[in-house]
Specification:
The structure is a homotetramer of 312-residue chains. With 312 residues, chain A is of the alpha/beta class. Helices cover 47% and strands 10% of the residues of chain A. In chain A, strands 1-8-7-6-5-4-3-2 form an eight-stranded parallel sheet. Chains A and B meet through helix 7, helix 8, helix 10 and helix 12 of A and helix 7, helix 8, helix 10 and helix 12 of B. Chains A, B, C, D: InterPro entries: Aldolase_TIM, DapA-like.
């Protein structure tokens, strides 16, 4: 099953479960995979930036992809960002063979000019093979690479294999509007736009034309509902639900290891991960941060009973 | 009246009002100043990053400070960030003479090492004079300069004139805790910590030890109430109010000219500014963005009647 | 006398002379100006990056331009780079009135995309007035802004006022070849290309099509001779002279205040400046650095008698 | 044979030879290795930044180390810089087993504060094992990470495994003087300092206290002679030889793929590499660049007969 530009809905960014001693926690990985199937996601992205991919050896990465592929029936996107095309190609070919539907590629933070960015994606697609569908990750806040709508259009039009844009520019609403305008005026073919950036603007991004979400919020059920409600033009209900989650969502969306620590902590409290451990070098929550999260979740639970599980 | 390290409460960052043709709008400036007094702020910061200071000529900057000083009885902090110490000194001396209580200094984005950052503030304080109280602006997201708590402590301890930290690191909660720990263990004297970053974490920052807010949200009344409620240990009420504003606050907190455009638009709709114009080069809101803001504000108004005014 | 795109030859970047106590040294400024006339330069750039412009107050900058304009008959280019268009406009209008031929504008280091760079120069030219000839400063090493040849072409073609490119990209030889190719294929009008970057590649840059040099080497006589010899197709002689200077030229070309300290030291030893003082914050040479420079100059003097003066 | 802090002399950075079709050229690799032995280098660094390491698959990197180790009797340093500690550890352990003497680690360009830099090297040493000697690569121009002398001292004193500093800061002479001062005042143990940055300041760096060179100039024989002559206090002779090479050395030292292209071209013309091909994505010299290099080398040959071979 290959990733295509018609993918829509919610494709969570999954963390990588570890035991406290640093080993990959396979039982948690299986449990998380099954849970994502149960709640009805439309795919999953693994080994992304927050999947602690750089801490995994090549063989571990492959084992994780194999384990997910064995029990997950929807498209699996695998992060293959690497400092060189050799490592990128090796991982991309391996994971496609193991059942991935496509790969995600972030730009190196040394790219500056429009031509450098377009050239990089051309070379990357050549390196991994034009038969491997890929996702552009557009996240200036993390990567310091700014892609104008025109640059994205050039990448899309030059590379048949480009199936999707992971949109996490900020501010980014008008960018979605511009890209959808390119499609309407015929200057760009359609690609899927799924939004990241922690989902911080999901409520309006879907209204602007995004096809869904591709982010790692600890309650993907909410993302699914908001995308669905917006699709049904039930605007107030979509915002009511989104707003109830926003105070915690904002907390989780903090950059770097702290945001991941919050996410893993909540997934542990929800019974999905056995531990919230990160592999070293790691960050951990202070007692005060955990109390703040508990408090925020207790408030979400007043509106969304799915946060109730958290209370036990 | 000099700025001291005991300042607490809410010190809004005020925008600079312009006419659509680019002239400074003095009537709006007066109206805004009086409104800030009425709602009970504890000071005001003008000519900051979002005050479009780089678009103002020296004489205009002085005129604005003079106009505010004439009718505002609380401390006025003036942004004097400049690429060179000559311009910084000239502006700092001029505005202090006109009645400013202190100045705010952001680091140039070329600083890298700890020693460079500490050295910069030492030289800046020497340049403007040790009698001029100053505020450190710690905003890595905007300036790409990362100050550890130890670096802030060094700046505070080396410079008697340092009265306040405008804290807008992100993530930043543990940083406040660490700095307050330095005070408790006696390794750092007390300075005021007022938080910026659009107020996005104000609800917890005050709990962590911040003395208040120093940011430009279009409803400073909310900031005032949250700071007060937290001070009275009315946690749930503080969060209830904060959370009601958060969906719009998040929208306004978008980086760059878009965030400012939102803020000016709301202040115009609230009757405080005659126009939401920015001086060129400027950004303006699309019709869709204005609709989104209107929608968000209508939702805030369900909880906070002060957003009702917006509806007229 | 306005700067035009037909300027050729050597236009030194002049330092700003200071007394050890930080005051502008007007006698040295006059002496330096007269010396530049005597050796036959084709213009001069003042208040550039190495002219310590950010340490000068507006009135001082104006006084320096006035002093140079009074005794210098060739085009004077003035650096007006500023964080905001208001200060840039104010300085540009003032210095043009005082007799400047044009201004030089470096891009702010926050620009990223091609459109941002082109837009910046459009706005800058609008701000200072389309009647003010300007120079693009293309120095990625200092400013972290990378301009492709296409971007430079867009700036040139959009702005009639663009008269010259100060070329200091590195590597940069092929860039000159590409830009001159644009002229030949009719896609770009002619602009003057004078090279900076300390002159480190002047020997080949002139062969590639540069019109001369716009840099601050302490022996502009050498730059003049190399440009002339290359123009006369006396390649070996040009390189012989250039190579004799290269060991010291490389030493002077060190980034930041150290390079400037070397340059001012040599100009002092040559009797042109009364002091090698920089205004604070300043850098000064260690005794070991001075010895190294003396040694290098004694070696240059074996080939170029003009370095003899240094020995006295 | 482990790398120790007593290593001195010249340790060239070796390029990776490729066939025009992109395969590793093993015959050239052997020939280059034997040539380095013949000219008397004191070690070799492979898979460094200019060794095109990111374009090599893990198995290829191992094969190259094994091939060099089989015929080279001096210390082999292997670049193991990687975006994550897992890949760094895997490569470091593998190459040490294959006979490497130590590894070289460059900092990721996202590091900012002093503590982040020190913490990174601590974590890296833990990841690869405290038994693996490592080299700090201090190259701000390439990596945008600025290490003060104090930061280097902290890394050296915290990590027994730190054996050497590859010094390529620019300006950097006073940094060497400061570090050697730390040794004299007893605050830092001795580590080897070998200089990179293309050797652009080798003539003075050795006088300042550097133990030699660790760079990739195409005539390492010159580097060897300059280090030896300086050691024998034959200053003028050292500079005479260095200065004869400087015009070409400067040309080769251009950043990025162009500098490497020049180096490989000259090594090919010298009969050491069969081809100057880079693996894709690659850069190649224009005809004009090749002519410029030929011209420069013909001038070097007037003084250094070893450049004569180039003429055939």
């Amino acid at each position: 099953m290959a990733l295509t530009s018609s993918i829509t809905g919610v494709v969570p960014i999954a963390p990588t479960p570890f035991h406290p001693d640093g080993r990959v926690d396979e039982a948690s990985l299986d449990r998380m995979t099954d849970w994502l199937t149960e709640i009805g996601v439309d795919g999953v992205t693994i080994l992304g930036q927050l999947g602690e991919a750089p801490k995994l050896e090549h063989s571990e990465s492959k084992a994780i992809v194999a384990a997910v592929a064995k029990r997950f029936a929807k498209p699996i996107i695998v992060g293959v960002t690497a400092p060189g095309f050799a490592a990128m190609r090796a991982l991309a070919r391996d994971v496609m063979e193991l059942g991935a539907a496509g790969v995600m590629i972030a730009p190196p933070n040394t790219l500056r000019t429009d031509d450098q960015i377009v050239g990089y994606y051309r070379q990357a697609s050549e390196a991994i093979g034009a038969d491997v569908p890929f996702v552009i990750q557009d996240y200036p806040l993390s990567f310091s690479v700014v892609m104008t709508p025109s640059v994205i259009r050039r990448i899309v039009m030059e590379n048949e294999a480009c199936a999707m844009l992971k949109h996490e520019d900020w501010p980014g609403l008008d960018k979605i509007t511009t890209l959808r305008g390119f499609e309407r005026d015929g200057s760009m073919r359609h690609v899927s736009i799924l939004v990241g950036n922690g989902g911080l603007f999901l409520d309006f991004e879907t209204e602007r034309g995004a096809d869904g979400a591709n982010t790692g919020y600890a309650f993907p059920e909410m993302l699914i509902d908001v995308v669905r409600l917006t699709g049904e033009a039930r605007r107030d209900e979509a915002h009511d639900l989104f707003d109830a989650h926003l105070p915690y969502l904002r907390y989780e969306q903090q950059q770097g290891p702290l945001g991941l620590a919050a996410r893993k902590y909540v997934l542990m409290r929800r019974g999905i991960l056995a531990s919230d451990a990160q592999r070293r070098p790691s960050a951990s929550l202070t007692a005060q941060s955990r109390e703040e999260i508990d408090y925020l979740l207790s408030r979400v639970a007043r509106v969304d009973s799915r946060a109730d599980a958290f209370r036990r």
